[in-house]
Design brief:
Order of helices and strands: EEEHEEHEHHHEHEHEEHEHEEHEH
CATH topology of the largest domain: Rossmann fold
Radius of gyration: 23 Å
Strand order of the largest sheet: 6-7-8-3-9-10
Shape: elongated
Number of domains: 2
Mean pLDDT: 91
CATH architecture of the largest domain: 3-Layer(aba) Sandwich
Low-confidence stretches: none
Helix content: 25-40%
Distance between the termini: 27 Å
Strand content: 25-35%
CATH class of the largest domain: Alpha Beta
C-alpha cells in the first residue's frame, strides 16, 4: 500500500483467529495511516469485534501478524495497551459509581497524576455535554449518555490510536451525529481511529473502509472507490405493489439481484438499457403496474449487499 513505516499506525498481515474449527477472522491484511478514520463494516458475526480485540492485545492471533504503533500485538501487548483507547460495544462501567467517580477511576488506571486527572475529567464533562451530571449514578444514565461516558473513559489519556467497537449502537440519530463530530475532532488532533459499525450512513464519514463478511475483507478503499466495486448497473423500480414486484423481479431474466429500498425496489442488472425495456413488460404481464424505472447511483448499502450475496453464492 506504499506508506512509510512511520506513517502507519496499524498494520495487519494475514491476521487470523480460529475458535476450534470456526474461523472468525480469515487471513486479513490492511494498513491504517496515522490520523485516519478507518471504518470496519459488516453484519453481526462478520469478525469485526474479534479483529479489534486482536489489535488491542486482548486476543492472541491464531496466525499472521499485527502491529500497532510499531509494536507487535502478540509479543508486546502491554506497550500497545498503554498507547491506545478501546471502547467496546458493552463498555464495563461500574453502575454504582457516579459519572465523575467513573472517569476518575479510569484516569487512575491510566496513571494520570492528580492535577492532570482533575483537568481531563472536567474537560470531558464539558466537551461531552455531561457537565452538571457528574454526581449522577452510572446506573441511572440512558444508553446515549452512558456511551458518552464510556468514550470519555477511553480517551482521557489522549491515546494515539482509538478503537471504537459499535460506539453509536443504541443511540438516537442526533447523538450519532454528535459522536461523529467528536471523532472528527479527535482525528484533527492527530488520533488514529478504527471504528466498527453496521450503519451504512456512518461509513460515508470514514476516510477508508473495509467491508467484512464471514471473516474476510471483501472490499477495501475510500467510500467513493467502494461504490465503484459494484458489478452491474443499478435500477430503481417504483410501483404501488412493491412486495409483489420484489418477489417477481428476483425471478426476472437479466436481473442479478433485487432488494427493497423504502417503497421502491432496487435491481442489479448487466444491461441497463435492455432491462429498462423488459422489466416493465415482465411485471405488467404479472399484473404489476410500474410507475417509474430509472438508473440510480449505488449507495454503500447497495454495494455491500451485492458483494455479500456474491460471496455467499461462492
Amino acid at each position: 500500500m506504499g506508506m512509510r513505516a512511520d506513517d502507519v499506525a496499524v498494520l495487519a498481515h494475514g491476521l487470523t483467529k480460529r475458535f476450534g474449527d470456526f474461523v472468525a477472522v480469515d487471513h486479513i491484511s490492511f494498513e491504517i495511516r496515522r490520523g485516519q478514520i478507518f471504518g470496519f463494516l459488516g453484519p453481526n458475526g462478520a469478525g469485526k469485534s474479534t479483529t479489534i480485540r486482536m489489535l488491542c492485545g486482548v486476543l492472541a492471533p491464531s496466525e499472521g501478524e499485527a502491529r500497532v504503533l510499531g509494536h507487535n500485538v502478540a509479543t508486546e501487548a502491554e506497550q500497545v495497551k498503554r498507547r491506545i483507547g478501546y471502547m467496546t460495544q458493552r463498555s464495563s462501567l461500574y453502575a454504582d459509581l457516579t459519572v465523575e467517580e467513573c472517569l476518575h477511576f479510569y484516569a487512575r488506571l491510566y496513571g494520570l497524576p492528580p492535577r492532570e486527572r482533575r483537568q481531563k475529567v472536567r474537560g470531558w464533562l464539558e466537551r461531552s455535554g455531561l457537565a452538571g451530571m457528574g454526581r449522577e449514578l452510572v446506573a441511572n444514565l440512558s444508553g446515549g449518555w452512558r456511551q458518552r461516558l464510556a468514550l470519555g473513559c477511553a480517551i482521557l489519556h489522549h491515546p494515539e490510536v482509538l478503537f471504537l467497537d459499535e460506539p453509536t449502537a443504541g443511540t438516537d440519530p442526533i447523538s450519532r451525529r454528535e459522536f461523529w463530530d467528536l471523532f472528527y475532532r479527535f482525528a484533527e488532533e492527530g488520533t488514529t481511529i478504527l471504528v466498527t459499525t453496521h450503519y451504512m450512513d456512518e461509513a460515508e464519514y470514514c476516510d477508508v473502509l473495509a467491508f467484512m463478511f464471514n471473516g474476510r475483507i471483501i472490499a477495501f478503499g475510500t467510500p467513493k472507490e467502494i461504490k465503484e466495486f459494484m458489478s452491474g448497473r443499478l435500477l430503481r423500480v417504483q410501483t404501488h405493489q412493491w412486495m409483489q414486484a420484489l418477489t417477481l423481479l428476483k425471478q426476472c431474466p437479466g436481473v442479478r439481484d433485487a432488494s427493497l429500498h423504502g417503497a421502491a425496489v432496487h435491481v442489479v442488472v448487466d444491461d441497463a438499457e435492455t432491462a429498462m425495456r423488459e422489466i416493465p413488460s415482465f411485471l405488467e404481464q404479472a399484473g404489476v403496474a410500474v410507475q417509474k424505472i430509472e438508473p440510480v447511483l449505488p449507495t454503500l448499502e447497495d454495494v455491500f449487499v451485492s458483494l455479500a450475496e456474491e460471496e455467499a453464492r461462492r
